[in-house]
Automatic annotation (TrEMBL):
Keyword Hydrolase: yes
Organism: Clostridium porci
InterPro entries recorded: HAD-like_hydrolase_sf, HAD-like_sf, HAD_2, HAD_sf, PGP-like_dom2
Gene Ontology terms: biological process: DNA repair
Keywords: Hydrolase
Annotated protein name in UniProt: HAD family hydrolase
Cellular-component GO terms for this entry: cytosol
Amino acid sequence: MYKCCIFDLDGTLVNSIYAIQRAVNLTLDAWGLGPINVEQAKMFAGDGYRPLLERSLSACGDEKLEHVQEAGRRYLEIFKECSMYRVEAYEGIRDMLAFFKDQGMHLAVLSNKPHERTVENVTEVFGRSCFERVYGEREDLGIKKKPAPDGVWSIMREFGVEKEETLYFGDTNTDMRTGANAGVDTIGVTWGFRGREELEAFVPRLIVDYPSQVVEFVKEVNGIV
């Protein structure tokens, strides 16, 4: 029986691609580079802000990443101002979360984006009471970012749940590897930043096109009529 659901944020719970794209392009503008388009932003995001910037800089002509250090500082400042730009929950997400809460399941968010921006996104979109735990990147606390399993395991310990009681949700190969590394059942979602083919390569427990499919899956596994 599943008792705990841990969600990636960007591309899984919320469509935040326009905020990510905007912050990157405003950062690159300092050197007359860019812009990156939405599809590039979808491919570059998912592993934290530094890989995002490295990929963006390289794609825009700075192959030697001469500006990466300054870009990192600039991006973090800019992202404070635009991290909520056009951010919204994907259709059906709120109903899915309401179902889980009605079942008394533990809900958490685990993201690779800066911690404060993760909390801001979740609070602004879902309020303060939807999730019991909301975590962004916390490597300064010794918790390695995804795809390392550290974050998933830390949340499981906090909730007192076992691997077989935990579901992890995500939209990228990083998320699929995170779930596999943590040894928990993983659900890939196709409404986010990457396609079905990328997810299928990692053979998750389930790949879904709509949040309602997750509800039906959990009902079946947990024996809910």
